[in-house]
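Hello,

I think I submitted the iron/sulfur cluster job twice by accident. Can you confirm which output corresponds to this input? Input:
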Amino acid sequence: MNRKDQKTGNAGDVAFSDALGRPMQDLRISLLDRCNFRCPYCMPEAQYSEDYQFLSKSARLSHDEIFRVASVAVGLGVTKLRVTGGEPLLDRNVASLVGRLASLQGVDDLALTTNGMLLSLFAQRLADAGLKRVTVSLDSLDKDIFSAMSGNRGDIARVLSGIEAAEKAGLSPIKVNVVVQRGVNDHTILDILDYFRGTSHIVRFIEFMDVGSRNGWSMDQVVPSREVLATIHARWPVRAVGRNYPGEVARRYQFLDGQGELGFISSVTEPFCGSCSRARISADGTLYTCLFATEGINLREPLRSGAGDDEIAEILKAVWLKREDRYSEIRRPETVEKPLVNKVEMYRMGG
Ligand code: SAM
Ligand code: SF4
Ligand code: SF4
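Support: Only one job matched these inputs. Its output is below.
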């Protein structure tokens, strides 16, 4: 029997929603807080030098603990799992965890987000383990811009061969995430689209977000998606297409000449909190209900002090039932000009 067909556990059948009527549908799992890149918009080099103290192995959830949380969440109705980080492929046993997550009955989407540097080494193993698809972050095809946007750590050729390896392994459709920053890579968006047009890969332009408090975010660095769309439309006309599923964050478009699909994630200028069904668990086992959270709920402590699955389920459910997060909808210039100093960083929480 194919690994993908051997499902274990109980599929979620407990329908419940948060205080704003949103179900808990997705769980994003940050495997580790370390990264081999230092993208300035996420983990600026100056603040994350070689001697920065990342979580120790014992502070991070083990794969057994991650699997328990995921299986409880799936029992509560979560159907989509995403493994992320930090850089998830820095965990050399990532494929074995993916295999366990793939075995959970009720999971209809299992994906992983990576910067792609190590993807050619892992793609086939991940696919064999039951991963369905990958998202690869690649901000520009211009060598110097890409290098700068990875904190001088990235190698475009390696990322592109990682994407090829993922395609060969059947991890499609591959989504290519491009964070657009004004004055940094916004003049290279047509080049990256030109490269991927005509393939099954879907380029998605993401507005630079005010996540965390270390990336020097300001509104003038955000290129609104409508502006990117206008530039693209002038070169290759596109038309909007509907969502694949309720709660999908990207707005989808197709090239009118049949050369494929692209998308926009416009958290800053067109917030989508109304349909946000995502919970996140950080590498140290903290549960967050919003990307812009300042605090979360410690699951590691109950996991390590003998709590049963039913008790973990109660915690998840109680937190979700009270959830009122809608940061992007209530974001105001005065709150973003002076970002809260304790907003949790994205690489910790899991992007
Ligand atoms: N290291 C992996 C990667 O880069 O794909 C996974 C983790 S990373 C935090 C997940 C996603 O968050 C990436 O696509 C990255 O570009 C995006 N991201 C990080 N900081 C961001 C920011 N300030 N605004 C928008 N997107 C951001
Ligand atoms: Fe690392 Fe991803 Fe953050 Fe870049 S965006 S520093 S690759 S975690
Ligand atoms: Fe979801 Fe929070 Fe983002 Fe709104 S701001 S879409 S609630 S993660």
